[in-house]
Amino acid sequence: MAPPRRPRPNISLWRRFRWWLRHLESPLELRASFRRLKQHNKHPLLTLLRMFIPYPSWYFNVPGPFSLGALIEDDQNGTGIIQHLFEDLHNLRAIPIWRMRDTPLRSIYRLYALFLADKYTLMGYETEYFFYRSGWKLQHIPDPKDADPLRYAVIACIVEELHQAINWRLSLGLRRSGEHVYRETDEHSWPPYVAEELPEWTRKVAPIDKDLLRRSVPPEKLDTDGNLVLEENGLSPILPGPKHASRSCLTGLPDVSTPLRVVLPDIM
Fold first, then answer.
1. In a domain, 91, yes or no
2. 27, 136, 150, 151: which has the fewest C-beta neighbours closer than 10 Å?
3. Is the pTM higher than 0.70?
4. Handedness of CA 183, 189, 194, 195 (dihedral sign)
């Protein structure tokens, strides 16, 4: 005699739909995005919904932009520029819809703000984020045509140094796609790579005007030659190299290429 069959549970269509909805996943990662926004937003759902509204355009505007003097004196004056820009940026970078609307030029301006505000650790995080945005090719960064000649010159220098840092990473086997190329032993040669090119507009940016610089930043931040000193006893001038020597009138830095060249361990 066959054993009695267990009765099938009576699961309604509504319960099935609720189970499906609860386990639904999408490339937008809406649940994870909502949980991240809850950490620093009073109205996380409204904040998330606003990210889907393409106003004034689909891509977010460049932050600020802020003058050199405002960023240099941000901590001293308590204006909170850096705190406002970066307090929740770590969470935002992990939200797909925000990443879709972010742009390489916005990232460059964030690097500019961190550079002038002497936030080198955060510069490393921002550079890491830029490096792994594989669709952000340096040669395609548009000309910001910044109305402030001082800011324009520093932006151009940062793009040029980022170009050097990215190619340095590529030469070590790091890949912007995350598919790194490893050497089996130290005797093996470094893997070949396709170097990234600079955008043409960086070569046309005028040098920094020292008279304008003198009128725009605190006098205690200038040395006797009129160079901007961001850190006393700094180890190297800003962005050394022939490609932007004409714009190099900022000095006293702890090797600015270091935060731009953060490398993942165990790749060499």
1. yes
2. 27
3. yes
4. positive
